[in-house]
Amino acid sequence: MMSFSPVPPPVNGPVGPLERGLAVLRELTRLAAHEGRTTVRPGDLVRGTGLARSVVDRVVGTLEQLGYITLDGRDIGLAVRLMELGNAYLAASGLPAALGPFAERLADGLDESVSVAVPDGVGVRFVVQVTRRRTMSLAFRIGDLLPAERCSPGALFAAEWSGADWAAWHARRAEDPLDTAFPAVPPRHRPASGEAFEARVKEAARDGWAIDDQLIEPGLVAVSVPVRDASGRIVCAVNVVSHTSRHDVDSLRAAVLGPLGAELPAMEAALTARRPRLAASVASAVSGASAVSGASAVSAVSVASGTGDSGTALGEDPARMAKRELGAGFLQSLARGLAVLRALGGAAPGGAAPGGAAPGGALGPGQGEARAVEDAARGASGATGSMTYGLVGAGPGGGRGGGMTLSAVAEATGLARATARRSLLTLVELGYAEADGRTFRPLPRVLELGYAPLAELGFTDIAQPHMRELVRTVHESASLAVLDGGDIRYIARVPTVRIMSVNITIGTRFPAYATSMGRVLLAGLDADARAAHLAGVRPEPLTRHTVTGAAELARVVERAAAEGHALVDQELEEGLRSLAVPVRDARGRVVAALNVATHAGRGTADSARGELLPALRATAARIEADLATASAHHALGAGERVGA
């Protein structure tokens, strides 16, 4: 994917494997964004990057070990865990936490989609999105890059461009006059004059707002206002989008400029709110350095905490350990460079690793901080020292936090200072980070590494690759279900290939009381909700094994809550045995249940539990980790929504 940040073209810099790894990730993203390809072959990457096949194979192998891509035979795809790189930028910028609550309130009040965009070179990249769910949906994906001249935030940002920026813009338009390098917008039919954009830039500088009258595509209109830091420089723009069936550009401007102007002082106060980073926030960033796969050398969870089954102590270099285990095919420099990039994101509130569950399960990722920032901006009490990372100030990089020093990055990743420095300089050279004195910060360009296509994934999209792996492991069918009234409803399923197998389709409903998934989901309710649900159930004997007594049913649900799983043996249907575990969201709430169903004749209930439960729990943990990563700074994409 092309990027038009004002940086020198890539050269054989200090860390060549990191540069080549980023090139492969960009090409994977380009193919996903431009062509809608969920998987590609190694040959596609060779052609797209110009790298030798042997180099591509080593890069792909390393990225797969890191958990950033998926391999299914020769098919290569983007993995959800790759979003942790983009999450590092979003966390460091502080924009989702600071402005997300304002965007939500504006979207509710205006009943229109609201987004926040930042400058990325001479383009515009979206970092916050709150949509209105309508048949005619208007939304940009987080991470989408748009030409500055084809959206209203671009005119605002260009008002502060330097001569070099304008020269880069003219060069980009000469190279790509039809905007074919921007998958988020329809390509032009013919080149457009630059004079119209220059005139709109002057108008935006004079008026303090900008409009998009169907510049992106026919029917789409938008109004944007700048959000400035304490020095008066534009950090980002808040953008309200509508459709010509609801507004023309003049009526939209009349409807939204007042509410936007009323919120601007508080938004700008939120941007200038700064808090010190605690030492714990640096330490927690190290989890990104670990190599994770089915047989990875280091567990991300254990590295993040400094303990765990691997015995890894905080400050060790996971890439070196992985190299020892995985051999010459593992590109240690690539793993270290990506660990450095992720470490630049610091930590989430309370010392949790970015993308992890919120402490205590009270609030989702970033929500506690967002609420405190908003309260502080409005002068409310209680928004004090518990927050662990600073928010944005001024800067061309889409908002600046406090940044991280070389020493802090080295400590966070367990790398030697010289090693961390080489990775940082490479990231700066390639436009993924900036240096400001002694500190380094990630830049919006990090979001080009798979973030936009991965941000579209819904709950079942995230779960199904892990379910397929589970089925390959246990050779039984796997299903995912949610609670729907008194029933469970199947939302995803991966069948196994057997002469005798369980045949259930998506959308199938069964009574919750007689199923393993139903009991796990009931166990996940709070005590009052669980009691109310069980009080309304009138169990019927579906087989001679079905539990129908109210007291006994309450006991088996309590046991499921205590043990973290439920096994149902021939209560729904003779010969059918199933085992289920809960799937939790980033707040720790049970939002779905995962099960494996088998025939009762294949062994005893205890043997089924012993053989299947470890794999079920491991699969649920991987799904939960991906859910936390994907929802760290925004709601999940389209598809089945759970836990709302």
TrEMBL record:
Residues 81-280, 445-629 form the IclR-ED domain. Residues 358-381 are annotated as: Disordered. Pfam families: HTH_IclR, IclR_C. Keywords: DNA-binding, Transcription, Transcription regulation. SMART domains: HTH_ICLR. Residues 358-367 have a biased composition (Gly residues). It comes from the Bacteria. The keyword Lipoprotein does not apply. This is IclR family pca regulon transcriptional regulator. The lineage of its organism: Bacteria, Bacillati, Actinomycetota, Actinomycetes, Kitasatosporales.
